[in-house]
């Protein structure tokens, strides 16, 4: 939804049916099509950000809410939170259903680290809530939802996930690849 609040991506593409036809045209040429979905971030100005942003944000150990970057207006949602998971699972499922795409991308997934662990006692998860465990369960839910619509749809993330989470993804990118010649 960008940095300006909610909008439909179809508004810029001539409508949903036009976008679906464009996806199908690429697929007929043998080009698999995947969609990018932000796995963690929500814009403050968007509906979810306004209604739930602060309550759904990752809480750091010191009690501060986590923003992605200093001065950012994008909030980082807790991947343990059931309401955020349901929102995301439905978004992924709906886009596979609407557009017939071959894959779905979870941005930022695979960078499981203690900086993204959530310390909120209000989210219903162990405190701290480990990012590694959350991403595994999150990917399992999303994978199940998109597979129910299209069993061949791939789920992939930004970075290689930990081994236990890898079973719920067909692939991932890796920033190590761009540096491997140097090492």
Short description:
By secondary structure, this protein is of the alpha/beta class.
Textual characterization of the structure:
With 183 residues, this protein is α/β, with parallel strands linked by helices. 37% of the residues lie in helices and 12% in strands. It contains six helices and six strands. The strands form two sheets. A four-stranded parallel beta sheet has the order 1-4-5-6, covered by helices on one side. Helix 4 links the parallel strand 4 and strand 5 (154-157). Helix 3 packs parallel to helix 4 (131-149). The longest helix has 19 residues, at 131-149. It is globular, with a radius of gyration of 17 Å.
- Average predicted confidence as pLDDT: 89
Low-pLDDT stretches are none
Radius of gyration: 17 Å
Write the H/E string, N to C.
HEEHEHEHEHEH
> Roughly what percent helix?
25-40%
Total number of beta strands: 6
Structural class: alpha/beta
Strand content: 5-15%
Features:
alpha/beta; 183 residues; two-stranded antiparallel ribbon; 37% helix; 4-stranded parallel β-sheet
Fold blueprint:
Elements: H1 16-28, E1 34-38, E2 41-43, H2 47-56, E3 74-76, H3 82-99, E4 103-107, H4 131-149, E5 154-157, H5 163-166, E6 171-172, H6 176-179
Parallel strand pairs: 1-4, 4-5, 5-6
Antiparallel strand pairs: 2-3
Helix pairs in contact: 3-4
